[in-house]
Design a protein that fits this description.
This protein has two domains: 29 residues; 128 residues. The protein contains five helices and two strands, in the order H-H-H-H-E-E-H. The protein has a two-stranded antiparallel sheet with strand order 1-2. With 178 residues, it is an all-alpha fold. The N and C termini lie far apart (50 Å). Helix 2 packs antiparallel against helix 3.
């Protein structure tokens, strides 16, 4: 019994040590962009956010056609944002692959928004927005934002909340997470 307690105590100490190391001294993610690339990505996100924020808000009870028109304007801006981001080419292979994966997720999210706008025009209030999922269950925006978190605070405007990417109904509030 005493040997079990010692073994358990050693395991707990090792686990706490490994956790502490990974949080404090474990280094950065291999997917982390270099500073100049992160600044370019963030600048593209800020530009998109500024344009989106200038779009007029809809009334409290917009028609499906009005909502679709708003989505069309937002989606055109997000497509332009995506094109600007696709012109960014990180120097290292792993961050470049991660950026391409993130942009692929943006493509899927924008396509879902476009489908929803089309359905608003054809199905009216019966249209439903279906956010793409990662691994079948996790909303794609969660995966997208996890990569942004790996970038530290250098790309906060690229968070899907800051760009209101999942908001397809109701008012939009464009703020950058702290």
């Amino acid at each position: 019994m005493n040997l079990r307690r010692i073994g358990l105590a050693l395991f707990v100490v090792a686990w706490i040590g490994a956790l502490t190391y990974s949080v404090t001294a474990g280094g950065t993610s291999p997917e982390r962009l270099d500073d100049p690339t992160a600044r370019t990505v963030e600048s593209n996100c800020q530009s998109a956010q500024r344009v989106l924020a200038k779009l007029p808000q809809l009334d409290d009870h917009p028609t499906p056609i009005e909502s679709a028109a708003r989505l069309d304007r937002e989606n055109a801006n997000l497509r332009d944002f995506l094109r600007r981001q696709q012109a960014v080419h990180p120097a290292k292979k792993t961050p470049a692959a991660a950026l391409q994966g993130w942009l692929g997720d943006w493509e899927r999210l924008i396509a879902a928004r476009e489908r929803y706008a089309d359905e608003l025009r054809t199905k009216g209030r019966d249209a439903r927005f279906i956010e793409p999922a990662y691994k079948g269950v996790e909303p794609i925006a969660d995966k997208m934002n996890n990569w942004i978190l790996e970038q530290g605070t250098r790309t906060n405007t690229c968070n899907t909340d800051a760009l209101q990417a999942e908001v397809v109904n109701g008012p939009r509030t464009y703020e950058t997470p702290k």
